[in-house]
User: What shape does this take?
Amino acid sequence: MANALDRRRQAVGLGFVTPTVLVILAILVYPVLQSFVLSVGNSEIDGSGGYRFVGLQHYAELMQTSRFWNSLKVTLIFTAFSIPLELMLGIGLAVLMNEHFHGKGLARLAVLFPWALPTALNTLMWRWMYNTDYGLFNAVALQTGLAEQPINWLGDQTLAMASMVTVSVWKTSSFMALIILAGLQSIPRELYEAGRMDGMTRWQEFRQITLPLLTGPILVALIIRSMDALRAFELPFNLTDGGPVSATESLSLYAYKVIFDFIDFNLGSAIVVIQFLVIFAMSLIYIFTLRKKD
Amino acid sequence: MKMKLLGAGVLAAALFAGMGTALAADLVLSIGSRGYGPTVEKNLAGFKQANPDINVDWNKVSDVPNDARKLYVTGLTAKSPTPDVFAIDVIWAGEFAQRGWLQPIEGLVGADVIKAYNPSFLEAATLDGKIYAAPLYVDGIHLFYRTDLLEKYKLEVPKTWQELTAASKTIMAGEGPQFYGFVSMWGKIEGLFMNWLAFTNSNGGGFYDKDGKVAVNSPANIEATQAMVDMLYKDKIAPESVLNMRPDDARTLFQQGRAAFLMVQDFVYAPLAGDDSAVKGKFDFTRNPYFEGHPDAHSTTMGGWFLAINPNSKNKEAAAKLVEYFTAYDQQLTAAVEENRAPSLPAVYADPKMAQAAVLTKLGKDFDVGVVRPSATTGSLYPKVSEIMQTEVTSALHRQKTVEQALNDAQQQIEALK
Assistant: This one.
């Protein structure tokens, strides 16, 4: 009797789970496998002419392509600069939004605004502001005398990367802030009261109560944001198209160009698989760090 | 990542599909709004009147060729039935035909219509004896200049690059800071390669040598490319921001009255001459300069646009009608007289009304010193060739490499392609 009920429950459960599993298999697992299959073979995009296995030939080709190494470097530099800045600003914003003040709701909304807007639109807006000849920044810089010559924001190799990091920090710090704010609100008030009784300063409170209890949310935010940064596409695509030369060409953008400009899905898939491995490795590092803390 | 690409593909396909809804005689036409100008709107209205049973949706694509190309590639790869008719750059014709993305137009477009097109244009869209697209118009890059400023500083219209540099320096000295001598489209786009071909050919160089071998790093090319670098850093007549500019960025600066010389395609004539233009009535154009000692050198890098039919279109007959309408005598004559678009029907040039098309006649003269891009000869390798050239020339212009190094690298990469 109980057995039959269990079985029926199981059947119902399976019925509920199956569609989700199928969808995940179709849109998540299949493309990943397909990328891998494409990356070790030669084929035409429309499937005509069949598929020929070539082993690691495309990977070997990439290892000898300076443009690939450049895009890997660009991706890592972008991640290494934008994530810490976003984290610091994110914590600051979260602490601020956790205080009680007038117009708090409005402030929270305003902070979230950049994150809520589509990256492509944001980026185009910034591209106009960065414009050397009729952009906002140069107009201000020239009129206030901060600069004598127009600054070539997106046309200088170093400045272009800095400009891109700036847009990323502006846009996604609020996302970090949101996750960290949720963590902040779960910290019991009593801890702070106890701390105050022991004569802690505000800084000591932050270092010894707030930060340790925020480790979990911070790591979650870091994982999500690092994955995003490692596959940055819309940002360089719309801001600089990878330029000047290839100074801001991320792995995703390079893969996109190989696939859609050169119509080489096999080589492009090899780039994508390597990118997948990089992101996977980064996630593992974070996850092990997270486990240790627990 | 792959998931993202696939997602983008599905989304694009859905967008494409969504536009061509159920009605049997619905067409989607993809063409930029700038390249062929207001003529598109006019032609669509006329076509609607002549064919009330056919609905045409105009899908405005980017006028930056490579952006439009990406959109097409996504849709065509997915065998999307729309757009039914789309405008293609002459440099894609061979490659797209080879990939089976273009419907041969014979049998759809009338034989007499096809016979009337300029045969040398048709040749660019012919593969293995089949014609894959109908020529719409030709364009090229020209040198636009400020007549009022040349007069003010008592300067002649520059014939050579040396004269242009000298004139720019004089004008810049007089006009003060934030005024530039020379602007063009030197961003990392196809337009940069067109510029490079104009510069190198005007120095007796070019992509190929006399025997038809790739000669990117020839001494004449190195000299011409160095001249481009010098315009930026030695003579400082071009702002460094020119390295980010697309055609419209350069046009905007010139139109605001902030530059003396502008080197881009014909389409800028209409906006520059428009009522809201600060340089209306104060500018003219001439053929691109040449280097001293090469007065016969060709320097007008040419482009051309075709209308092609999607082989997966559900309404190929209606699509062919649209192509015929756009390339018909009357429509081409109007486009020529009113919008200065150079027709693909030789017969139009003999029309008495062409006497009114003074601007076009002048543009057409620059085509006598035309240079074509190596797209027909390199076929499906052309996108890679162009990308290599864009990257290497850009790295020279940014002084990341010496000119010689950059062109040697380009030569080596192109030779390795085959």
